[in-house]
Design brief:
The structure holds two protein chains of two kinds. By secondary structure, chain A is α/β, with parallel strands linked by helices. Chain A contains 16 helices and six strands. In chain A, strands 3-2-4-5-6 form a five-stranded parallel beta sheet. In chain A, helix 14 links the parallel strand 5 and strand 6. The longest helix of chain A has 21 residues. The mean pLDDT of chain B is about 85. By secondary structure, chain B is mainly α. The two termini of chain B are about 15 Å apart. In chain B, helix 4 crosses helix 5, helix 10 runs antiparallel to helix 11 and helix 13 packs across helix 14. The chains are: A alpha/beta, B mainly alpha.
């Protein structure tokens, strides 16, 4: 019996049990029923907390990507002698940066580097961190030691939707097979720790709002069932492993001409400076937490923004640049001339994500931007 | 909300006025007036767009280009359900079987009782209003029975119906892109989805009502066990079929009069029942098909052959299969996006015999079949039950956990919200 079959059988058995198991001769008690519910729920959570993640989510999308990155690192020659770039981002990077191409372009510029992309469509900041930590803990002791010695650069994607709400996209699509488990007590505590900073800083926020957010997140993650959540996805569906996926065509709702017109209008009227508030306090808290968690590994922290046709995104990148955290760098964004060179309907899947051809252009731009920074700011 | 309040006000005043003129000619006039207002509201919100659309089509057919455009009126959630309940109350008061409700709040609770507000079941005033005024005492047995019903409904809706929705939607969105076997899978999936979706909502509504100490009658009784179309309508959306019987079929004449009048009444009732589901020719076709089938079924029941074959086991199996095949096919126009799609799907189903399994795109066949078969052939048979309090508590808890673990994440609205 396949996994997907089992996923139908279990709820069906639960249905039959509900139909056939009736209360005994004594009147059932609501209080006892509630206690049993809480006990079973707690036992379930405890069980999940005890078991190692690799056992719970062996075939999840996260696990497959992490495995791919392990292989990639091990295949990279002398990786510990060159910079290792950890990219943490969302679908924008997942579909927009071809990491193999980026490595090749950097090598051609005389800057050999290993690029590890911890990017996944819809992945919020905590999920990206989870992927990075899963990767690090999966390395051998020797590799971990080498990693600590290497010149590691953390590159975070600048994206307003995720930065303003680090728990962005709490509703997980079944098809993403998300394997992040915030209701696992261990991970729930970690999320809470990340937010505690915010609570201390902003006394206007009542505690319950955070509890509500986390609770909702936990429920929406369906107790982190990860790979077991894709009951409706046929087994034959192609499994994603590599960190880059080229998109084809254009989104049905995307109107390229309108997007370009809006962007040009914005560029025409918007001054360089704007009154937008910089990074969100929640983002600050999560970034501090990320820094704390990766302190022993990462040497430099930087940020990048991929080209976009959405004015609000471009506006946010400018605001972000003005208030970047201390001790970090921001790669320069694409210049107006570079953006102009990207104005081709064949390059855009939608206002944020490029097609495969667009991704090549994005990657080339990123290589140029990285070149400037790698030479100046992050030499070991 | 404003509309619901308006309906409550009309219903409240209407009930008091009808009681005052009870038995007189004025009462009849008032009944027409108050029910007319309710039906006008329903017609405006539900059918104006459709009617204008058709008129525009006809005008264009005659070469006239009207200057108006079709209006897009947002359908208030649950309107079809609470207006039917309002009519049930008004007619009940008129007939003298329901006492007029003097308390405005109780009237509001009757029409807007939250568990079933958006998609039924349609509660009859005679059974629900007395519960609102009687003193209630907490009964843990009733509470837990409500919990159990809610848990079953939760599995129906969130696990079975919602997980089926994705593959089914994909096939009905573009049936031309799928092979006959895949289209058959999609139809089979919808056959299960609509049952689990609507029965799930009803069970959850009934369960929540039970937890509050109220009783709402069952809305489904394993309709896919029905061995005739008549039997199917006694098991499917029971509250609607009962309403249609009491407030449409019987006032039209019911079983009285010559046979052709009975069939006419049945046909009109099902035609309007189909239209109640939505302003679309697809629903009309669905209602007409069921109306015709009910007429044929009644005619058959009166024949000598029916009496002769009544005890035949083979015939019972044949009847079950034939009925369910008919119900299955009728869901096609109900779910299709257009009449053209309906025809295309029927064409694909007709060529099913020539199709091979290899030609099908991946489809969750087990999900489409197993829960449905378990529910149809095992649940509610009453042959045996394991009675134990501890086991009952554990089953409740584990079922909820299983429901939460396997439920579909994302937006999958109840199908009957649109009605």
């Amino acid at each position: 019996m396949r996994d997907s079959d089992l996923l139908v059988v279990i709820p069906t058995l639960a249905l039959l049990a509900l139909a056939f198991v009736k209360p005994g001769p004594q009147t059932p008690r609501v209080g006892v029923a509630a206690i049993v519910c809480v006990a079973i729920f707690s036992a379930f959570l405890e069980l999940r907390a005890i078991l190692p993640d690799s056992m719970l989510w062996p075939t999840s999308e996260v696990a497959r990507r992490v495995n791919w990155l392990h292989d990639h690192l091990r295949k990279s020659k002398d990786w510990d002698l060159h910079p290792v770039i950890i990219m943490a981002g969302s679908s924008a990077t997942n579909y927009g940066v071809d990491t193999d191409l980026l490595e090749r372009l950097l090598r051609e510029r005389g800057l050999p580097a290993t690029v590890l992309s911890f990017c996944m469509p819809g992945a919020n900041h905590l999920e990206r961190l989870y992927m990075i930590e899963s990767f690090l803990t999966g390395l051998t002791a020797q590799e971990q030691n080498q990693f600590a010695q290497a010149n590691v650069i953390f590159l975070g994607e600048i994206f307003d939707a995720y930065d303003r709400n680090p728990l962005y996209r709490i509703e997980k699509e079944a098809s993403t097979e998300r394997a992040v488990m915030f209701l696992n007590p261990k991970n729930a505590w970690e999320s809470w720790s990340a937010y505690r900073v915010l609570l201390n800083e902003n006394s206007n926020l009542p505690d319950w709002s955070m509890a509500w957010l986390l609770g909702e997140h936990a429920l929406m993650n369906r107790f982190a069932v990860g790979s077991y959540s894709s009951m409706r996805i046929p087994k034959s569906k192609k499994r994603k492993t590599a960190p880059f996926f080229p998109l084809e065509g254009a989104k049905s709702t995307f109107r390229y001409e309108e997007a370009v017109a809006t962007l040009e209008k914005f560029e025409g009227i918007a001054p360089k400076q704007n009154g937008l508030s910089p990074t969100h306090p929640q983002w600050d808290a999560v970034f501090s937490y990320t820094r704390e968690r990766l302190a022993s590994v990462v040497d430099h922290y930087g940020f990048y923004a991929l080209p976009t046709l959405e004015p609000s995104r471009a506006k946010y990148v400018r605001a972000f640049r003005q208030s970047k955290p201390d001790g970090t760098f921001v790669l320069r964004s694409a210049t107006p001339q570079e953006i102009k060179s990207l104005l081709n309907s064949g390059f855009w899947f939608d206002g944020v994500h490029p097609t495969g051809i667009g991704a090549e252009k994005f990657t080339s731009l990123l290589a140029v931007e990285l070149d400037e920074v790698l030479r100046k700011e992050v030499s070991p | 909300m404003g509309l619901l309040l308006f309906v409550v006000v009309i219903c409240h005043i209407g009930g008091l006025v009808l009681a005052r003129f009870h038995g007189s000619r004025k009462a009849t006039m008032c009944l027409y007036l108050f029910c007319g207002i309710q039906l006008l509201l329903l017609a405006y919100f539900k059918y104006t767009g459709f009617f204008m659309d058709q008129l525009l089509g006809v005008a264009k057919g005659f070469g006239i280009s009207p200057t108006w455009t079709t209006v897009n009126i947002i359908l208030p959630v649950g309107i079809s359900f609470y207006i039917f309940q309002a009519i049930s109350y008004l007619v009940g008061v008129f007939r003298g079987v329901v006492k007029p409700e003097a308390n405005f709040i109780r009237m509001g609770v009757y029409l807007g009782f939250f568990p079933h507000l958006v998609a039924g079941p349609i509660i009859h005033a005679a059974s629900f209003l007395p519960q609102l005024s009687s003193r209630r005492r907490f009964d843990s047995g009733v509470f837990l029975e409500g919990w159990r019903k809610f848990a079953i409904g939760f599995l129906y809706k969130s696990v079975f119906a919602d997980n089926l929705a994705g593959p089914v939607d994909a096939i009905f969105r573009d049936p031309a892109a799928y092979s006959p076997i895949s289209v058959f899978g999609g139809c089979l999936g919808f056959y299960g989805q609509i049952y689990f979706d609507f029965a799930g909502y009803s069970l959850m509504a009934i369960g929540v009502a039970n937890m509050f100490g109220y009783f709402i009658p069952d809305n489904f009784n394993h309709p896919y066990r029905a061995a005739s179309v008549v039997d199917f309508w006694r098991r499917w959306h029971i509250s609607l079929s009962t309403w249609l019987r009491d407030y449409l079929y019987i006032p039209l004449g019911g079983n009285r009069g010559p046979r052709w009048m009975v069939y006419r009444n049945l046909f009109i009732t099902m035609f309007l029942g189909g239209l109640w589901h939505g302003a679309s020719w697809n629903f009309v076709v669905w209602g007409v098909l069921h109306g015709m089938a009910l007429c044929l079924n009644h005619a058959w029941n009166e024949s000598s052959s029916a009496v002769r074959l009544a005890e035949s086991r083979t015939f019972k199996v044949f009847s079950l299969l034939a009925t369910q095949a008919f119900v299955f096919l009728c869901w096609v126009p109900f779910r299709s996006q257009s009449f053209a799609d309906t025809l295309l799907i029927f064409q694909k189903l007709a060529s099913l015999a020539a199709s091979t399994l290899e030609a099908s795109k991946p489809f969750p066949w087990l999900l489409a079949l197993l829960p449905l078969m378990a529910d149809t052939f095992l649940v509610g048979q009453g042959r045996w039950a394991w009675r134990s309090n501890p086991a009952f508590y554990v089953v409740l808890a584990v079922s909820f956990l299983v429901g939460l673990l396997f439920m579909h994440i994302g937006f999958a609205p109840f199908i009957y919200f649109q009605f």
